[in-house]
Specification:
This protein has 222 residues and is mainly beta. The chain has helices spanning 2-18, 216-220, and strands spanning 23-29, 31-40, 43-44, 46-48, 50-52, 57-64, 69-85, 92-110, 116-135, 138-146, 155-163, 168-175, 186-188, 191-193, 200-210.
C-alpha cells in the first residue's frame, strides 16, 4: 500500500513532463520561518521561531495550460524543524529538525507573468533526524540519525502562496502529520516506554523564495 502511494506522485511527475508544449523547469532556494502547534502530555508548549536559510532547494516542473492557469510538480530538499521549551522541565529547550525529500503537486492561478496564487499538496520523506538539548542555554546533548524511526515515514502537507512582481514568492505550509512517531519505543535502565505517545507536534511555516516561477515570459513570447 505504501509503495502504491509513493508511486502516485512519481507517475504524475512523468505525465506532466511528457504532456503539454508549455512545460519547463524552474529552481530556487527557500528561507523558512517555522513554528509548531505543540500539545505536550496534555499541556500547550511554547514554540520559538526557527529560521532555516540553508539546504532548502527545490526544482519545479511547470506545465502552463494558458497564461492564467498552470500545474506544478517537482522535487525539493528541506531543512524543517521546531524549537520549544519543555513544560515540565524548567530551563530545558529542545531543537528538533529533519531533512526531507518532498514532491509537490499543485496549481497556479492568476496572471502567470505578474501576480498569481499557487497551492497544493506535498508529501515529504524525512531522511535525516537531528536533535539538540539545551539546559539553561548550554548545549547538553546532540543526536543525528539517518532514517530514524523516531519520526514518521512521510509527512502529509498542504501549501498556499502568492507570486509577487519582481520574482518574490511568499508561501504558507502546514504539516498534518505529527512530527514524531507515536509508536516509537525507547528503553532506559531496562524500562521500555513510548516517549511521544501522549503528545502532538505539528509544524507550520512561512517562507520566502526568489524567482521560483521564472520562465513564463519566455513561454508566452512564442
Amino acid at each position: 500500500m505504501k509503495t502504491r502511494i509513493l508511486l502516485i506522485p512519481a507517475l504524475f511527475l512523468v505525465s506532466v513532463v511528457a504532456y503539454g508544449q508549455n512545460t519547463y523547469t524552474t529552481s530556487s532556494g527557500e528561507l523558512i520561518f517555522s513554528y509548531a502547534n505543540i500539545n505536550y502530555k496534555g499541556s500547550e508548549a511554547s514554540s520559538v521561531l526557527r529560521f532555516s536559510p540553508v539546504l532548502n532547494i527545490q526544482t519545479l516542473v511547470n506545465m502552463d495550460r494558458s497564461d492564467r492557469f498552470g500545474i506544478i510538480t517537482g522535487l525539493a530538499v528541506r531543512n524543517v524543524g521546531f524549537i520549544y521549551d519543555v513544560p515540565d522541565q524548567p530551563g530545558v529547550r529542545m531543537k528538533h529538525r529533519t531533512y526531507n525529500l518532498g514532491v509537490p503537486i499543485g496549481i497556479k492561478v492568476g496572471n502567470l507573468d505578474k501576480v498569481f496564487l499557487f497551492g497544493g499538496y506535498e508529501f515529504e520523506i524525512p531522511f535525516v533526524y537531528k536533535e539538540k538539548t539545551f539546559v539553561n542555554e548550554d548545549k547538553e546533548d546532540k543526536t543525528t540519525i539517518w532514517f530514524s524511526n523516531r519520526v514518521n515515514t512521510w509527512n502529509n502537507t498542504a501549501f498556499v502562496g502568492i507570486q509577487l512582481p519582481k520574482g518574490l514568492s511568499v508561501k504558507f505550509k502546514y504539516y498534518f502529520t505529527n512530527f514524531f512517531n507515536k509508536d516509537y519505543e525507547s528503553t532506559t535502565n531496562g524500562v521500555t516506554s513510548k516517549p511521544y505517545a501522549g503528545s502532538d507536534y505539528n509544524i507550520f511555516y512561512f517562507s520566502l523564495t526568489s524567482n521560483l516561477f521564472k520562465g513564463t515570459d519566455f513561454e508566452y513570447s512564442k
